[in-house]
Amino acid sequence: MSWVAVFLVLFCLIGLFGLVHYWGHKRVERAQQAWFRQVLGEGVDLEAFLAQAPYEYRPLASGRAYGILDKRTGEEVGQARTPEEAEAWIVLRTLREQGRLPRSEDGP
Q1: What are the φ/ψ torsions at residue 59 (nearest 5 degrees)?
Q2: Is 23 exposed, middle or buried (0-12, 13-18, 19+ CB in 10 A)?
Q3: Which tens digits make up the pLDDT trace of 25-77?
Q4: What is 3-62 written as a DSSP string?
Q5: What are the distances in angstroms from CA 28 to CA 15, 31, 46, 56, 78?
Q6: 62 vs 68: CA distance, rounded Å
Q7: Is 95 exposed, middle or buried (0-12, 13-18, 19+ CB in 10 A)?
Q8: What pTM does this model have?
Q9: Separation between Cα atoms, residue 89 and residue 94, nearest integer Å
Q10: H or E segment to which residue 86 belongs
Q11: Which helix (H) or strand (E) holds 83?
């Protein structure tokens, strides 16, 4: 009987940790979506904006990061660890080039 109890306790703990991880991921995802809505404005589709942006991102050969490429020249202009970070970089740089954001010395 004790091995059944141990199994159930471990199963419940694994399920609980999985649920906490899921909730945390959803919270981060909602925050990212809210940030993109705030920066781009209501009604602007992120995918359409990225398709028209002068930059794109692709996985690097190492598979651990993403290279940000300038579509106009084809050269790599930056790197990001995650696709979300690359998308944020592209959005900020594109808006800055369009004059919709102030320029800064230390940012993208």
Answers
A1: -65, 140
A2: exposed
A3: 999 999 998 999 888 888 889 999 999 999 999 999 888 999 999 999 999 99
A4: HHHHHHHHHHHHHHHHHHHHHHHHHHHHHHHHHHHHHH-TT--HHHHHHHSSEEEEE-TT
A5: 20, 5, 17, 23, 23
A6: 14
A7: middle
A8: 0.75
A9: 8
A10: helix 83-97
A11: helix 83-97
What are the tokens at 98? 């369009």
- How many CB atoms within 10 Å of residue 77? 15
Structure tokens at 2: 């004790």
Percent of all residues in the chain with a pLDDT value above 90, rounded to a whole number: 70
Please check whether residue 69 is in contact with residue 55, taking contact to mean a CB–CB distance below 8 angstroms.
yes
